[in-house]
Amino acid sequence: MAIERKFVVEGERRMLIKEYLKKETEKAGFGGIEIQRTPMGTLISLITERPGLIIGRGGKNIKKLTDDLAEKFDMENPQIEIEEVGNKAPLNGQIMAYKV
Fold first, then answer.
1. N or C: which terminus of the chain has fewer CB atoms within 10 Å of its end residue's CB?
2. Which domains, ranges and CATH numbers included, belong to the chain?
3. Has residue 1 got a pLDDT over 80?
């Protein structure tokens, strides 16, 4: 496979992951993601307004998201990190668009 094709496939995969996470975490104030490949697996930093809704009671919701990512997108050891937007929520376009 040509190197250009690998970049296109990886970009498409990132877009599908972003759309899936946006749909699943919309009520928690989805603000974006950052995906990093590490030697231990894939680290996904999820920016959100209300992290408690994503984590859930006892981590049930975040465990479900992690399992879904591993299954649907064929990821090896996905790790989700939640970042709270805090006072900068009005500066995040995706959060403000959802509120309107």
1. C
2. 3-99 (3.30.300.20)
3. no
For the chain, the average pLDDT equals 87
Report the SS3 class of residue 100.
coil
Q: Strand order in 41-48's β-sheet?
A: 30-38, 41-48, 78-84
pTM score, two decimals? 0.83
**Two tokens, residue 94:** 């995706």
Distance CA 5, CA 63 (A): 32
**C-alpha angle with apex 22: 98 to 58, nearest 5 degrees?**
105
For the packed helices 3-24 and 60-72, what is the interaxial angle rounded to 10 degrees? 150
